[in-house]
Amino acid sequence: MPTPTPTPNPFRRLPGPLGWALLGLLLFLLPFALLREHSYVTIDDNLDVELTIPYLLTRHHVALDYRATTVVAPIMNGLPRNALRPGLSGTVLLFGLLEPLPAYLLQQALVRLLGLLGMYALLRRHLLPARSERRLAAGLALAWAVLPVYSMYGLTLLGQPWLLHAFLNLRRGAGRWPDWLLIAAFPLWSMFVFVGPFVAVALGTLLLWDVARGRRWSWPVVGGVAVLLGVYLVVEYPLFYSLLVARQFVAHRLEFDLSQLGPQGTMAGLKASAQYFFMGQYHASRFFHGAALLAAGAALAYGPRNRWRREVGVLLLALAGLALFCGFYPQLLTLVQDSIPALRTFNLSRFHFLTPLLWFVVLALSLQVLPQKKLRLALVALQLLIGLGMNTEWLNTMRELVGRPKATEPNYQAYVAPALFAQVGVAVQRLSGQPIAGSRLACLGFPPGIAQLNGFYTLDSYQNNYPLAYKKAFRPLIAGELAKSPLLRSYFDAWGNRCYLFSAELGKNFRVGAFPARFVEDFAFDAVAFRQLGGRYVLSAARLVRPARSGLALRQEFSARNAYWHLYLYEVQL
Description:
Keywords: Membrane, Transmembrane, Transmembrane helix
Strand order of the largest sheet: 4-3-8-11-10
Protein name: Glycosyltransferase RgtA/B/C/D-like domain-containing protein
Organism: Hymenobacter elongatus
Mean pLDDT: 94
Helix content: 40-55%
Radius of gyration: 25 Å
Pfam family, one: DUF6044
Low-confidence stretches: 1-5
Transmembrane segments: 18-35, 104-123, 135-160, 180-209, 221-240, 284-302, 314-333, 353-370, 377-395
């Protein structure tokens, strides 16, 4: 047997291109370090929910308590703990050690740093190994590290290069213990429901592709997949136990009907597919794929004709196929969801979490064959600029740094507004005569996750998974408002992750700021059902013009310097 080629250490020369890339990442992160609580943190699907979950799991000491009777008291009258993310996670560890904002900023820095190093290792070992390509690899690694991502998902996306690097080493037969360690560590800081099954399918497809081309079946890769899924099985124990052994509760997701949430038809599917192909999906890093497409086009025009065409052609076809599948997925699901109800609960279109890495592989393979050095560097620079230009979290933080913030995009301190909510807490304790934990409230015009971050116990919440029985118990509170708005009715009935107080006059505006002041003329609220659910107070970012008609009485209003909100506290009157 031939002696395996020793694996080079891609980090042996830190000074030079990789050192400059690390310096570039440091400069990227510097505004967050300087501004701290005045930094902008992505709000939608992030600050309004994701920071709250690990914070509450750790503060209430239930992160690793997977008993069926364990609940997280501040959420929805006691949300079953096993409805939330697992506790065996790097994210939960950081939030257990630090306050939410420092934990978030440190997580972002670590995730982007590891993403940069992982992409550099992948490129130098497998895609751009020549010494003359170090600058290209370092530039692409930096471009990868600054992509717009949800860093609360840990290494789910930016950590994928490490995983691909390890599996390609196993596929070559040159796998060593670090490769197995990388595979085993990945589930400890990533989200199974976003990438786990899809990575397994992708690797299985790669193995079948190898066999079809006459290569030997790679048992090390099979073993690596087994290790990956085995560790996920341990990390996601509550999820697998619920799926395979005993279901703890019937999830609200069983009533999902995606066909009601968006346009249907061929043109709608093609439009969505084009969005996936050229831009991607916002949870999985939305950025324009123009640099990769330009590089592939230039390589076709100027590069040598060899197996490169086949490799990149297959990747582009795969990306186009995935885009079509994701674009038409809601309509495909409509055809089968009644006969296979379980498909409602699991989003098979999450293959899109793999596509950013595939686009970077297309870009790297194209750079391999382009003869013009300046053109190759220009394409890397273009990708870097695209990533920076579409990273709204970084751009809004830069606007804060130069003193030109967007009025509709508040920074962390303004949005979480601890001083403002402290006033509310004092008022609630004075009115109720008991600690905050003894009073249940609901929020109108702003996400209840912010109230939860400030120590309040809310009946409403934004959750990907919660009991269907609770959704049905909550609906009477807002039935009057849902009757006014078909849009809100389908939003709640066919989806319902946002189990919120709704107002037809506010629509889906869950960011009602202090300026300009907003008023709700007629709030069709069932105060009796609210009281039966345990609620006592409604905290609103909009003023109710006729609160008595809703069974409510205004107790106090609150404002604070630099807070994004002006809040009104109403108490149920029966």
